[in-house]
Amino acid sequence: MPSDPLKLRQIQSIAFFAILAALTYGSIVITKYDVVQGFTAIPRAFSWATTHFIPDEAAWRRLPRILEKLFETILMAVSSATTASALGLVVALLGATTTRPHPWFSLPARGIASIFRNIDVSAWALILLFSFGQSTYTGFFALFFVTFGFIVRVMVETIDEVGMASVEALRATGANYLTIISQSVIPACLPQLISWVLYMIETNIRSATLVGILTGTGIGFSFDLYYKSMNYSSASLVVLVIVVAVLIIEALSNVIRRAVL
Amino acid sequence: MALLQIEALTKSYGNEARALDQISFSIQAGEFVAIIGPSGAGKSTLLRCINRLVDLTSGDVRFAGVSVPTLRGGALRRQRTQIGMIFQHYNLVNRLSVLENVLHGRLGYKNMVQGVLGLYSETEKREAVRILESLGLGEQIYKRCDQLSGGQKQRVGIARALVQQPKMLLCDEPIASLDPNSAKIIMDTLQQINQKLDITVLVNLHQVDVALAYAQRIIGVNRGRVIFDGPPAELQQEQIQQIYGSESGELIFSLRERYAI
Questions:
Q1: CB within 8 Å: B107 and A173
Q2: Which of A36, B5, B68, B223 is buried most deeply by CB count within 10 Å?
Q3: B74-106 b/e with 16+ CB inside 10 Å = b?
Q4: What is the count of residue pairs from A and B with beta carbons less than 8 Å apart?
Q5: Prediction pTM value
Q6: Which range marks the domain in which residue A153 is found?
Q7: Does the keyword ATP-binding apply (chain B) (predicted)?
Q8: Do A76 and A104 belong to one domain?
Q9: Residue A152 C-alpha, separation from nearest chain B C-alpha, in angstroms
Q10: B107 min Cα distance to partner chain A (Å)
């Protein structure tokens, strides 16, 4: 073992890349993956997509119906994000060190949030399918649960970060608990809260497509239907419409963010 | 009768050494008292035991004849309205206006509905503006607090304490984050409040020179014990060394020389 720390570092990085190369080669051998064929397939995939995955005239005639489904999906994403955030804020206030009514509240609040967050939205959709069947409720609650878990987590951190000092000051004036929350914690956290809600709306619109495929609702269902009936041109229009919708909503929320922050 | 009477106040955290150990002193109405001591001596904890932001382990604190340690709920909040508090980091809600932050000082007098909705009377608003003007912040009333300098923020903190119409001000290192110029303005303001409004001032400081220049009485604390309690003229070099530890003796001595001349 050389005593020179620079030399040691060099050996460490060489060893790292050697292990990485060995792992890659091992995986290729085990899965019998043909590297050459894999890469040469990319241009063929593109040429297939450009010939088949292009909206044709028949697809454009279906645009009003697709937009209707898109609207349904966006509404579901927005309503699940906002209602889950409202509930999430309450639970975050109970869980944050600064605002919890009693130290015992913290662990359950954070624990529940962690469970809801760490089960993926597609898993939630499949679980809820048993309870609600193929309906909008399934998608709504799947998005609701994941948003709820996420908002609790980020808001607990935000509240502890920005709220601590002013909470102490308001306690010293003799203000009661709910007054302290409404007059100091909420105003201090509001920009971050709005920003996270907007982020969840964007995320939910993307997830709603996947959830729709699984639960048979909204724009995801349209995509699934066209795709499985090999109506690729209509399926491509659905993808195009989703991309445009997400871009517009991202731009909108950036404008709102700039105004509130 | 003394305005504030502290008897055998002890505070310990878990099984660790006592943060405050058998502290006893009393303060008469109208006094300007400085508590000096090194960082971690327990000065902040001592101040927070007076308005019960921190619960004491044993001993008694009597403020205006009322025993503080046993107070709960509404009675505790009413007690807190009589004591204003000023913090090292100002503890304002930075996103709110100067006026809103000052009005927070009235929240201790509000019932649940008024407090949560932040309903202030015309008289309270006029009083807040009057206090802000008297502190030289007449131009800043509608500015957001994050646009202010450190010295201005601390004056907002003082205004918030004054609208409480307190009998006493607790100041926790009010000038520790300020430049010398702003620090002087803040200390002069506290002195004027003490002399003109006849409000008792208890201020934590770690600068001996400032304490000597402003306080009528100095209480020296080290490791949770009172080492010295008397007028500035009686504070000797040995006692300063006892308060701050022997190593810092020389530096403190030179400061003392300058002020003695």
A1: yes
A2: B68
A3: eeebebbbbbbbbbbbbbbbbbbbbbbbbbbbb
A4: 88
A5: 0.80
A6: 58-260
A7: yes
A8: yes
A9: 22
A10: 5
